[in-house]
Amino acid sequence: MSGDTKMDNTVNLTPAGSSDSAPLLKRMLRMRETGLIVIILGLFVIMSFASPYFLTWANMRAMSMAFAVDGLLVIGMTILLISGGIDLSVGSVTALAMVIAGWLFLSGIDPWVASAMAIALCTAIGAFMGFFVTRVGLHHFIVSLAIMVIARGACLLFTGGRPLGLYTLPPEFKFIGQGSIGPIPIVIVIFLVFVIAFDFMLRRTTMFRKVFYTGSNEKAAAYSGIRTKKVIFLTTTLCSTLCGVAGIIYMARFGSAQPTFGLGLELTIIAAAVIGGASLNGGSGSILGAILGVILLSLVSSSLALLDVSVYWQDIIRGSILLAAVTIDHYLNKRRG
Question: Can you give the pTM of this predicted structure?
Answer without folding.
Answer: 0.85
